[in-house]
């Protein structure tokens, strides 16, 4: 018999106990469910390394580049902090992209977890903004990348140019831009942490999804020790993967032009953002009109937000959705292609491939409402289908409400 | 000195690792498991790899033909 410490029943500790220790979790979760806690770990790594880097970094146009070199060469362990922070951002995006694709495959966005999904997209947006403004402005590629992307705001009708001037703090990317970007770069990770807590709270309202995509109330086990240990395995594997980049290939995910101080008089031949922005960058460039490109980027996030609400499938997991399963792999292939196109020059045949791949990306979201109904016709009289019919779902929710009351 | 009776302690003997099976299930039927994974997932793997590899091949082939076209 396990003795429960009475401390776990005290106010704050009882919350921790209910959500992290005794929390009922589906027994059949695979390692694809470990990426959530890994994302939390990445956020903590970024905040800690970032705070210590900020102690030595100088956000001034004349000193920023040199202060980073000072961190790398003179500050004890500075090289490690810098490389952990730079590669940690890449790791954060790898983990989050895998987390998103897991959600897409297993239908974790489907009812009743729409809020979890939407909060996740908000976190992704915050991460993108944080990474962009934290990329630095006083290196060749950072400077020109910032110039290109902030200039996109001029596509907004009427007030576009005013917004760009406000963003820059002047008429070009300069000292004012550096300061007004550095400040929110320090702040936003804490906003992300708050959004992550909301994301977890929304998840714990109905509990985690599982690889089968069915109601798992009949077979749940305590989070601790089972998934604590499972997540720990994931953390160790992540630490090894992260360490390979930090200690053996710290610059492989970066751009060599960033070791050249920014020169407003010399534009690089090919301006490319960091690898995690390449798919969205490819979609932006696939439309020659600036406003159209900006609208396309907006449409990407609108599509992500709308996904739980346009989904018509009664089945969650792609394990039981043969057509969606193939479309999922095509979407993944499409995103990989978009990422590749994003770092290619704007010439044939990359332009045409980028345009086709962009259409392919939106095709997945366009077909989602039709696909559910099509698959429902194919899967008839199955337990999985019956379990998630809307009438059954509303019956389950009513019962749940009665239990809670 | 006379013999003093000594209470014998129980000694537990265990088999050496060479004589017992450790985590036997981990690699049991690994050939069958691999084959099953392949049969279940080869279509998905092909759906993922073919567009990427095919498009990359197409682009490289296009660039090569363009280079040759511009040569005397």
Q: Can you summarize this structure?
A:
Chain A: Belongs to the cytochrome b family. The complex is a heterodimer of chains A (405) and B (72). Chain A has 405 residues and is mainly α.
Task: Write structural notes for this entry.
The complex is a heterodimer of chains A (405) and B (72). Chain A is mainly α and 405 residues long. Chain A has 15 helices and two strands. Chain A has a two-stranded antiparallel ribbon. In chain A, helix 2 runs antiparallel to helix 4 (78-106) and helix 5 (114-133) packs antiparallel against helix 11. The radius of gyration of chain A is 23 Å and the shape is globular. The two termini of chain A are 31 Å apart. Chain B has 72 residues and is an all-alpha fold. Chain B has one helix and no strands. The longest helix of chain B has 40 residues, at 30-69. Classes of the chains: A mainly alpha (405), B mainly alpha (72).
Mean pLDDT of chain B: 82
What separation lies between the terminal Cα atoms of chain B? 111 Å
How many helices of chain B?
Answer: 1
Low-confidence stretches of chain B: none
Low-confidence stretches of chain A: none
Q: For the largest beta sheet of chain A, what order do the strands appear in spatially?
A: 1-2
Q: How big a fraction of the residues of chain A is strand?
A: under 5%
Question: What integer value in Å does the Rg of chain A equal?
Answer: 23 Å
Helix content of chain A: 55-70%
Class by alpha and beta content of chain A: mainly alpha
How many strands appear in the DSSP assignment of chain B? 0
Largest sheet of chain A: 2 strands, antiparallel
Question: How large is the radius of gyration of chain B?
Answer: 33 Å
Largest interface: A-B, 14 and 15 residues
Count all strands of chain A and give the number: 2
């Amino acid at each position: 018999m396990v003795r429960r410490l009475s401390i776990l029943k005290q106010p704050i500790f009882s919350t921790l106990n209910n959500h992290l220790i005794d929390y009922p979790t589906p027994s059949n979760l695979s390692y694809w469910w470990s990426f959530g806690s890994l994302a939390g770990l990445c956020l903590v790594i970024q905040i800690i390394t970032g705070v210590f880097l900020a102690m030595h970094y100088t956000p001034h146009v004349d000193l920023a580049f040199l202060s980073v070199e000072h961190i790398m060469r003179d500050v004890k362990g500075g090289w490690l902090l810098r490389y952990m922070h730079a590669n940690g951002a890449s790791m954060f995006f790898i983990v989050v992209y895998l987390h998103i694709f897991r959600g897409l495959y297993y239908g974790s966005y489907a009812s009743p977890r729409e809020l979890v999904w939407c909060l996740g997209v908000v976190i992704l947006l915050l991460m993108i903004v944080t990474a962009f403004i934290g990329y630095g402005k006083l290196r060749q590629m950072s400077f020109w990348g910032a110039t290109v992307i902030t200039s996109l705001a001029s596509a907004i009708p009427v007030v576009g140019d005013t917004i760009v001037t406000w963003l820059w703090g002047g008429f070009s990317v300069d000292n004012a831009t550096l300061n007004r970007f550095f400040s929110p770069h320090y702040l936003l990770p804490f906003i992300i942490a708050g959004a992550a807590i909301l994301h977890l709270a929304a998840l714990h309202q109905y509990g985690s999804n599982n690889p089968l995509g069915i109601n798992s109330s009949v077979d749940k086990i305590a989070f601790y020790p089972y998934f604590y240990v499972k997540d720990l395995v994931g953390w160790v594997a992540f630490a090894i993967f992260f360490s390979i980049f930090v200690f053996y290939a710290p610059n492989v995910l970066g751009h060599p032009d960033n070791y050249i101080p920014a020169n407003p008089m010399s534009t690089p031949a090919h301006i490319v953002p960091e690898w995690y922005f390449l798919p969205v960058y490819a979609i932006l460039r696939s439309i020659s009109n600036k406003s159209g490109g900006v609208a396309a980027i907006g449409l990407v996030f609108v599509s992500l937000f709308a996904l739980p609400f346009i989904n018509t499938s009664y089945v969650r997991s792609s394990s039981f959705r043969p057509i969606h399963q193939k479309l999922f792999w095509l979407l993944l292939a499409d995103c990989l292609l978009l990422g590749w196109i994003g770092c290619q020059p704007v010439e044939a045949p990359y332009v045409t491939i980028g345009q086709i791949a962009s259409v392919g990306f939106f095709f997945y979201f366009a077909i989602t409402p039709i696909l559910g109904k099509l698959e429902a016709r194919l899967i008839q009289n199955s337990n999985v289908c019956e379990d998630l019919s809307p009438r059954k779902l509303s019956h389950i929710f009513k019962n749940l409400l009665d239990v809670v009351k | 000195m006379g013999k003093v009776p000594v209470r014998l302690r129980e000694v537990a003997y265990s088999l050496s690792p060479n004589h017992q099976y450790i985590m036997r299930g981990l690699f049991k039927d690994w050939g069958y498991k691999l084959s099953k994974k392949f049969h279940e997932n080869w279509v998905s793997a092909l759906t993922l790899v073919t567009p990427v590899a095919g498009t990359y091949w197409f682009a490289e082939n296009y660039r090569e033909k363009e280079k040759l076209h511009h040569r005397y």
